[in-house]
Amino acid sequence: MSTSRTQTLRRQWQHQPNMRFMDRLVVCFILFCSVDLRLIRKANAALPPDEITAIEALRDKFNLSNWTAGDPCSDVNWIKCSGAKTNVESLLLTNSNLTGTIPSEFKNLKSIITMYVNNP
User: Fold this and answer.
1) Mean pLDDT (10-residue bins), the chain, 120 residues
2) Matching Gene3D superfamilies, A to Z (predicted)?
3) Of 110, 97, 92, 98, nearest to 52 (Cα)?
4) How many structural domains comprise the chain?
5) What does the pLDDT read at residue 41?
6) What is the DSSP string of 32-97?
7) pTM flag (> 0.85)
8) Residue 73: is it exposed, middle or buried by C-beta count within 10 angstroms (0-12/13-18/19+)?
9) Using CA atoms, how far apart are residues 105 and 98, in angstroms rounded to an integer?
10) CATH number of the domain that residue 72 is part of
11) Per-residue pLDDT, 80
């Protein structure tokens, strides 16, 4: 083999461990970013469409206050959601002077724990 060819092969071999390190570094970075994105998506989770439909039906039927910023879990005091804001857990309808029947969409609230409806 010629000297220049030997030197070229030697340089390639010397840089190969660095390339493995760089490959690992890139994979670690990608994994870190994917975990971070999953956390962000969870933090910004929204109510499922069927639960939105249910609370809209309750709001319209009983003339309850509306949410303005698109997040019923944060904007009105008669809805309480899970910590991740992915499900309605409580409805606080005291002193709302409710009359009539509960809309059929109420069945879409799968995680409802409490519903306060008393009128003192």
Assistant:
1) 63 58 66 50 66 92 84 87 88 88 92 86
2) Ribonuclease Inhibitor
3) 110
4) 1
5) 40
6) HHHHHHHHHHHHT----HHHHHHHHHHHHHHTPPPPSSS-HHHH-TTEEE-TTSSSEEEEE-TTS-
7) no
8) buried
9) 17
10) 3.80.10.10
11) 93
